[in-house]
Amino acid sequence: MTAADGRLADDAVAGLWSDPPTLPTKWLYDERGSLLFDEITRLPEYYPTRRETSILHARATEIAALTDAATMVEFGSGTSTKTRLLLQAFADRAETTGRWFTYVPLDVSTEILESSAAELARDYPGIDIEPAVADFTASDLTLPTSNGPRIAVFLGGTIGNFDDAMRATFLSRLAKALEPGDYFLLGADLIKDTGRLVAAYNDKAGVTADFNRNMIEVLRRGLDADGLYVDDFDHIARWNPMHHRIEMWLRARRDIDVRFRGLDRQWQLARGAEVLTEISTKFDPTVLADELAQAGVVVEHQWTDDHNDFLLTLSRR
Ligand SMILES: C[S@@+](CC[C@H](N)C(=O)[O-])C[C@H]1O[C@@H](n2cnc3c(N)ncnc32)[C@H](O)[C@@H]1O
Q1: pLDDT tens across 148-206, in order?
Q2: Cα of 290 to ligand 1 centre, how many Å?
Q3: 68 Cα to the center of ligand 1, angstroms
Q4: Which of 87, 280, 290, 306 lies 20 to 30 Å (CA to CA) from residue 256?
Q5: DSSP letters for 263-288
Q6: Euclidean distance between CA atoms 255 and 248, whole angstroms
Q7: Which has the closest alpha carbon to 244: 184, 190, 298, 311?
Q8: Which residue's C-alpha comes closest to atom 8 of ligand 1?
Q9: Measured from the CB, is residue 56 less than 6 Å from ligand 1?
Q10: Would the CB of 46 count as within 6 Å of ligand 1?
Q11: Nearest-CA neighbor of 27 among 250, 217, 239, 298?
Q12: Does ligand 1 have an atom closer than 6 angstroms to the CB of 37?
């Protein structure tokens, strides 16, 4: 069993026998899951990536000038596609200031992180690319040392995957890890029409369904399971108005009876019962600014796109 399988075992024991059963979202992102997510970002229904890209397009140069950062750490960097807009702006700035710029993409998805970092190193020879395989929910959140201000970046609305308590914990850990004068750039999806939100997580082509159901394959492989099949689960995406979040569930199509050899345990799920795999909280700009302030950073700018769909917030420690 690898270290990752060991952590999956711990999360499965803690989550699958709870009510409702649940698993941490990070387990959606094995190599196949990361590639499927990348496909999702290009779907017509999935507006967040296009909207966030348009804000970055308009603001990247300004962000590089405002922060004058020497090091950028990105949590959950994935393929770093949008981040290229920031990298170009910082590379241009490094050329004029003569100061070296370092980019640390950080992700749990090892294969995607490594292949993306190799491509970035080729495309940005003037930037030092130092990928880090790490879990951003770990209690020992640390940032690399730097010869100038640092900017921590968290894009894609991934902050929405935390519930309220986890978000408060993450933000205060991050604020503590930053030094005075460091920056935090946060991308967050905004509350909007429910129909558009649900469609973004339940696309017509079924790519999000494949992405969600891939969690079953991750469990089967990682925990050596007998009786666990992707085809026995439906993808469900629904809006939870109380917590203003989209929830993704896996619903059993029949009674499930699984032997997890990796856990030496049996797991049952009745037909129609559901496992929670992802929440995606949507935000109000003022509420988010208050949360950031409470965590210990000062909000300096909030930018939205032309459609007011997505929000980029730059704050300073
Ligand atoms: C919604 S995707 C966003 C990817 C990219 N930043 C974007 O904006 O398109 C979430 C990313 O966070 C990573 N991730 C999820 N949970 C993580 C965790 N606990 N620690 C580190 N990375 C994580 C995933 O592997 C994935 O690359």
Answers
A1: 999 999 999 999 999 999 999 999 999 999 999 999 999 999 999 999 999 999 999 99
A2: 24
A3: 25
A4: 280
A5: TTEEEEE-TT-EEEEEEEE-B-HHHH
A6: 20
A7: 190
A8: 156
A9: no
A10: no
A11: 217
A12: yes
Q: Which domains, ranges and CATH numbers included, belong to the chain?
A: 3-43+208-281 (no CATH), 47-193+283-316 (3.40.50.150)
Using one digit for the tens of pLDDT, what is the confidence trace for 82-100? 999 999 999 999 999 899 9
For residue 152, give the nearest of 167, 141, 161, 163 by alpha carbon. 141
181-to-73, 127, 148, 169, 310 alpha-carbon distances in Å = 15, 22, 9, 21, 26
Q: Which atom of ligand 1 is nearest to the CA of 29?
A: 25
Q: Is the CB of 113 under 6 A from ligand 1?
A: no
Q: Where are the beta strands (DSSP E) in the chain?
A: 71-75, 101-107, 127-129, 132-133, 150-154, 183-189, 225-226, 233-240, 245-252, 256-260, 265-269, 274-281, 298-304, 310-316
- Measured over the CA atoms of residue 272, residue 273, residue 278 and residue 283, the dihedral's sign is positive
Residue nearest to atom 9 of ligand 1 (CA): 156
State phi, psi for 217 to the nearest 5 degrees: -70, -40
**158 Cβ below 6 A of ligand 1:** yes
